[in-house]
């Protein structure tokens, strides 16, 4: 199931009130205006806008270099940490639709949902809140033939996985200019992410979100 807008229900008149801007453009604009100011802060790290731009550009270029195409789906099951927000921005820059999986979704739920959204990759924090997300994904992987890559938040990535930290540290822009991403960017009224409901009464249902700060919806 590729994410698709079945109907354009947003009136043209409403569109005229929206700024011509996307989420990733806001991030890049802040990097130009406030490069040394903090963009993201957690108990473990602090990231400036300039650092966030470098991270998102390099990861976006790295994803494209791996062969992930515009419109492909990459999942992420990561708690609310800086890497989660930066990865979602990097996916938008690479033209990749993000599947934002709630940390509470269990292995059997992920096994059902990942094939439905046709995810080609997923990013996880190895362990959080007592749950071993990386181990779960590694166990699921043989049953998910479309899942080609597992990305890991952090530097230590076991064999067969890819470290997002290492990817963000590689100066890939020397080989592939960041400006090449412009043709891949997700537009402001395109579907940029898919989510799920909580699944309290059954299997979680899939929702879609648009790539505009004032037009996000399902």
Q: Topology of this protein?
A:
Elements: H1 12-15, H2 23-33, E1 38-41, E2 46-48, H3 49-65, E3 73-77, H4 82-93, E4 97-100, H5 107-116, E5 119-124, E6 127-128, E7 131-132, H6 133-140, E8 149-152, E9 162-163, H7 164-169, E10 191-196, E11 206-210
Parallel strand pairs: 3-4, 3-5, 4-10, 5-8, 8-9
Antiparallel strand pairs: 1-2, 6-7, 10-11
Helix pairs in contact: 2-3, 3-4
Task: Characterize the structure shown.
This protein has about 220 residues and is an alpha/beta fold. It has one domain: Rossmann fold, CATH 3.40.50.980. The chain has 7 helices and 11 strands. The protein has helices at about 10-15, 25-35, 50-65, 80-95, 105-115, 135-140, 165-170, and strands at about 40, 45-50, 75, 95-100, 120-125, 125-130, 130, 150, 160-165, 190-195, 205-210. α2 (about 25-35) packs across α3 (about 50-65) and α3 (about 50-65) crosses α4. The radius of gyration is 17 Å and the shape is globular. The model is unreliable at about 210-218 (pLDDT under 50).
């Amino acid at each position: 199931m590729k994410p698709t807008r079945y109907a354009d229900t947003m009136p043209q008149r409403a569109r005229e009130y929206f700024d011509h801007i996307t989420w990733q453009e806001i991030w890049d604009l802040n990097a130009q205006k406030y490069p040394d100011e903090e963009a993201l802060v957690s108990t473990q790290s602090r990231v400036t806008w300039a650092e966030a731009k470098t991270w998102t550009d390099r990861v976006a270029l790295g994803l494209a270099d791996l062969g992930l195409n515009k419109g492909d789906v990459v999942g992420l099951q990561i708690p609310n940490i800086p890497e989660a927000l930066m990865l979602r921005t990097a996916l938008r820059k690479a033209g990749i639709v993000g599947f934002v999986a709630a940390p509470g979704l269990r292995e059997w739920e992920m096994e059902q949902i990942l094939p439905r959204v046709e995810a080609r990759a997923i990013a996880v924090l190895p362990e959080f809140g007592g749950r071993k997300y990386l181990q779960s994904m590694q166990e699921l992987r043989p049953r998910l033939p479309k899942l080609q890559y597992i990305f890991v938040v952090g530097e230590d990535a076991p064999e067969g996985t890819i470290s997002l930290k290492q990817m963000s540290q590689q100066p890939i822009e020397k080989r592939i200019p960041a400006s090449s991403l412009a043709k891949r960017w997700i537009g402001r009224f395109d579907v940029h992410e898919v989510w799920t409901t909580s699944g309290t009464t059954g299997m979680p249902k899939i929702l879609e979100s648009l790539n505009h700060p004032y037009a996000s919806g399902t």
